Amino acid sequence: MTRFRFRPVRLATLGVFALAGLIFWISFNTAQGTNIRSDSSMLRLSDLIQERSRTNAELDSSAAAVREQVDDLARRDSGTSGSEKREFEQLQADAGTEKVSGSGLTVTLDDAPPNATAQVPGVPEPQANDLVIHQQDLQAVVNSLWKGGAEGIKIMDQRLISTSAVRCVGNTLILQGRVYSPPYTITAVGDQQKLRRALDTSPAIQNYMQYVDAYGLGWKVDGHNAVTLPGYSGTVDLHYAKPAE
Predict the structure, then answer these.
(1) Dihedral angle over CA of 41, 43, 44, 49, nearest 10
(2) 10-residue block means of pLDDT along the chain (245 residues)?
């Protein structure tokens, strides 16, 4: 009987699958956020940050150990076929572990001035929630960019993966225990025309643009001939970025 032999690429592939599974579990565990437009409950920001920081420290340690094993297997692999190598590279791309470069664009969203008034006839005067960026606004942009064929996306300085999501508390964005305030930047690598078309045809973004026109919420799209996104390091926890069907 022939004994089944594990080739290095198979071990590396299994390692990447294990890493992807761990990343998915991390994202699932931390992506149970609250949409502040539809839920009136508010968490104390300081308590939330402390809780997430403790959890993320434990998960980051596990992710780093798995990533180190995968990297070791990849370095030892010297006898792979072309198809196996392409499969391994595709798995790395899906996990978002590698840098990605190319043309792309950056979308910037910002709160309206706190003293903003209605700028369109017939529109009611704004409430406080009408003047700030919300979780679903960031989600709408990220989903549209994935749908437009983005090869990679980052929010602020942190890379997203396919299972990532954003979390907002009040008018602040929290990513892996780090707090960001507007303006928020979302950068994608991909075909600029396709990315812009996906943004322009998104119903959720069209709704956001009504608030831009009515109350002065910030919206800016800048194109890049060349831009580089960092690889997912295993130390960030970005949630929600799965393309809409």
Answers:
(1) -160
(2) 44 53 50 44 55 60 61 61 62 68 98 94 93 94 96 91 75 78 97 98 97 97 96 54 45
